[in-house]
Amino acid sequence: MVGITIMLVGFYGLMSKKDPIKIVLSINIVSVGLVLFFVGTGCIKEAKAPIMPRKSVVDPLPAALMLTTLVVDVAITALALTIILRMRRRMT
């Protein structure tokens, strides 16, 4: 539920803001909400890390993919903000 709520806040920011920096940050908020949603759906109560053989273990692949997604999101956000700042600098 928290991930969906954060995604909705990000979508609201996308629809209501016109400033490019705020739009980029809203996209970043949507992405974080999506990561929280996928991590929450992959959560299994009373499951342990898959270090030793057990009956119920958590699959580490979704968590690794979401970590990779966060790293890529940070890089894309930094690039987008740099492009926006350079565009503003050239306009003035």
List strands and helices in order, with pairings.
Layout (H helix, E strand, L loop, with lengths): L1 H15 L3 H22 L18 H32 L1
What key phrases describe this protein's structure?
Helix Hairpins; 0% strand; elongated; 75% helix; single chain; mainly alpha; 3 helices; 92 residues
Textual characterization of the structure:
With 92 residues, the chain is mainly α. It has a single domain, classed as Orthogonal Bundle (Helix Hairpins). Helix content is 75%, strand content 0%. It contains three helices and no strands. It has helices at 2-16, 20-41, 60-91. The protein is elongated. The model has no long low-confidence stretch (mean pLDDT 88).
Q: Outline, from the CA principal axes? A: elongated
Q: How many structurally independent domains?
A: 1
CATH architecture: Orthogonal Bundle
SSE arrangement, N to C: HHH
Structure in a nutshell:
The chain is an all-alpha fold and 92 residues long.
